Amino acid sequence: MMKRAILATVAAAAALFSTAGPARAGASLDAIRARGQLVCGIHTGVAGFAIPDSRGVWQGLDVDLCRGLAVALFNDPNKVRYTPLSSSTRFTALSSGEIDVLFRTSTHTMLRDVTLGLRAITPYFYDGHGFMVRANANITKASEMGGATICLIQGTTNEQVTADYFRSNNLQFTPVLFQRNDQASDALQANRCDAFGTDASQLAAVRSTMPNPAEWKILDERFSKEPYGPYVRRGDDEWYDLVRWYVNAVIQAEESGVTSANVDEVKRTTTNPDTRRLLGVTPELGQSLKLDPNWVVNIVKAVGNYGEIYERHMGPKTQVGLARGPNELWTRGGLLYALPMR
Predict the structure, then answer these.
(1) Cα 199 from chain centroid?
(2) Cα radius of gyration rounded to whole Å, the chain
(3) What is the pLDDT of residues 258-302, one digit of tens each?
(4) Biological process GO annotation list (predicted)?
(5) Is the Cβ–Cβ distance between 125 and 207 less than 8 Å?
(6) Which of 14, 147, 196, 328 is 20 to 30 A from 31 (CA-CA)?
């Protein structure tokens, strides 16, 4: 009797916890498919990641990752609606259900992952906090900036990183907070700030849009680890898995040498078991995510592999002009590494 009572108690507890999650498993994917459109949270405007072009069409690395995810879901890169969000509103918008997924220069941190009711997913961009100053300011390192007024973006990790650095080095500084990068840029150029502190890629993006980029210098030092990755709501493992393996697939396509130009030929001729799985010759990857077996083929045709996306929006030939650096594949000395897709 006692044994049966214990088993009954355990079963009841298991049932309670299995139904206590904030979202029903599969609810996100079902809702997106019923709507016929993905809703993607992006930046309000930063070159290279997400910015409207002269026609008002959004362009950038984050934008293309949203488009690729729409291809995985609908085989149509246009079935996505972009929601520009500030740093201080992005996580609230995701938590409230205003967006389905956040692709918005958002650093993965422990407290964000465990306290906001959200899940951080595979990083797709590695960065670090830096400072930009006038080139003629005779400043070569941050320790020379004691007493400086520093432009920062509210609601970012950069606020804390800057405060931690100056406090730990017994230096004083005055923060001036803004909602958007363009506001901070305007203040910097108007001499309201001595420096702008944010992630180095965004500093490069801001500098590229200034009237005289050569007048500004990004200091060489980096003061933090800033891995960007998408976020989704907790409680829906199916949607989490789909977004996670989508990001891995875009990276794996580059690792496997699959490009928008050769994807059909590689699919037709490859004998590599991993590549055959990736491209749907054997369909188990797509089936496991409830996607078309050709989901990766369709993605690469529409937006390219990770390297193609990076070079199109961030690379040395673009306005932003960033070498791959840590965002190179692990086989070429970088940090990008797709988890095994088998």
Answers:
(1) 13
(2) 22
(3) 999 999 999 999 999 999 999 999 999 999 999 999 999 999 999
(4) amino acid transport
(5) no
(6) 14
